[in-house]
Design goal:
It is a single chain. The chain is built from 14 helices and 13 strands. With 391 residues, the protein is α/β, with parallel strands linked by helices. The N and C termini lie far apart (44 Å). It has 2 domains: 139 residues, Aspartate Aminotransferase, domain 1; 239 residues, Aspartate Aminotransferase, domain 2, CATH 3.40.640.10. β9 and β10 form a beta hairpin. The strands form 3 sheets. The chain has a 7-stranded mixed beta sheet, sandwiched between helices.
């Protein structure tokens, strides 16, 4: 008997990690430090919530079905802002609004792949990308990164077969935090174009990139839509995680195929969330700039405090956006270590085994720390606890 689609993949990692908390108590003087999930823990800023409350009362359309590919005004705003930010030409017909960035990835894969096809993704990977590929009957082809956690286009070229349909990258990266250089993304674009496949670039964390100016020149290419599919999340930018609002920027042909998927799954994106995202784009630029600076300061705090554990054999493999990715020095697999950290250090973090195929041993020595949920003081406490570990 064949397995169901969902049985073809693993359990949701964040939910699995939360179950490690069952039956564990944390004393008042050592509360749990939760660095497991890459999501804001605060609600949207008060002015946005006030605007959303007004939308609920004053805008009847906020409660009804809308266009499958999203609110026209939001699509227009994304096309205009992206064109200016990236120095390219993007039209609203090349923008779709989705129910979160995960759905954008699922829609993109559904639009370009058939069962038995292959998609190349760097290792370590974002686990939800692997889960969707599993459930869609698509083979994940892992591309090992170098010591700098940046994938190499020449290495990817050797993995392309006649079943390869896309290469999917995330920058700034989840789980490593690394910001891929512009030339790296251009090299992958050139490879994908030459081999007739798509390049998917998930830029969920673009608003927290440490670089100024556009992080790449992919949209400056006048023929960008023959190869590039970009994904984005409003959830991280405006703390709209519970409202599920993302975006997909691609050719009109790809979006026509994606529309079939989106109509079947959700019919239309969340109407209130879309209106909130548009309001944020129109009113919260200064606020978002401040949020970016705060995340960059927390990144600096990670780097400044890492010396507390470096001399014990810990290594910082990557750091940026919401994440630090580390190698631990202990003689145990990272999934065992992560569960021990809950009870013995009051830390909930995800092990590298959740970001690697089981056959890749590297994941057993790695951990992801999602530091966007803790401030400078919390980061200092985190490293103090890690430094005190005795295994």
């Amino acid at each position: 008997m064949s397995l169901s689609r969902t049985k073809a993949t693993f359990a949701p990692p964040v939910m699995e990690a939360r179950r490690w908390l069952d039956g564990v108590t944390h004393p008042a003087d050592r509360p749990l430090i939760n660095v497991s999930q890459a999501a804001p823990v605060d609600p949207p800023p008060a002015p946005m919530r006030a605007a959303m409350a007004d939308m609920i009362v004053q805008d009847p359309e906020a409660h009804l079905y809308g266009p499958v590919l999203g609110l026209p005004a939001l699509r227009d705003a994304v096309a205009d802002r992206w064109s200016r930010a990236y120095g390219g030409q993007i039209t609203s017909s090349q923008v779709a609004i989705t129910s979160g960035c995960n759905q954008a990835f699922a829609a993109a894969i559904s639009a370009i792949c058939a069962e038995g096809d292959e998609v190349i993704i760097p290792l370590p990977y974002y686990f939800n990308h692997r889960m969707w590929l599993d459930m869609a009957g698509i083979k994940t082809v892992g591309l090992m990164c170098g010591d700098d956690m940046v994938p190499n286009a020449d290495a990817a070229a050797a993995l392309i077969t006649d079943r390869t349909r896309a290469i999917a990258l995330v920058s700034p990266n989840n789980p490593t935090g690394v910001e891929y250089p512009a030339q790296t993304l251009s090299a992958f674009r050139d490879l994908a174009r030459a081999r007739g496949i798509k390049l998917i670039v998930d830029e969920t964390y673009r608003d927290f990139d440490s670089r100024t100016g556009p992080p790449h020149t992919l949209f400056a290419d006048g023929a960008w839509d023959d190869t590039l599919i970009q994904l984005y999340s409003f959830s991280k930018a405006y703390r709209l995680t519970g409202h599920r609002v993302g975006a997909m920027i691609a050719s009109t042909d790809i979006l026509a195929e994606a529309e079939k998927f989106l109509d079947t799954v959700t019919i239309c994106p969340n109407q209130l969330g879309q209106r909130a995202a548009l309001w944020g784009m129109e009113n919260l630029d200064d606020w978002l700039a401040g949020e970016r600076l705060e995340i960059l300061d927390r990144r600096a705090a990670i780097e400044e405090n890492f010396h507390l554990i470096a001399d014990q054999g810990w290594q910082l493999l990557g750091c940026g956006a919401y994440f630090a990715y580390v190698r631990h020095p202990f003689d145990m697999a990272s999934d065992t270590l992560a569960q021990k950290l809950v009870a013995e250090a009051g830390i909930l973090a995800l092990p590298g085994t959740m970001f690697m195929p089981a056959e890749v041993a590297d994941g057993k020595r790695q951990l992801r720390i999602a530091f966007a949920n803790i401030d400078r003081a919390g980061i200092a406490t985190l490293f103090s606890r890690l430094a005190a570990l005795q295994f």
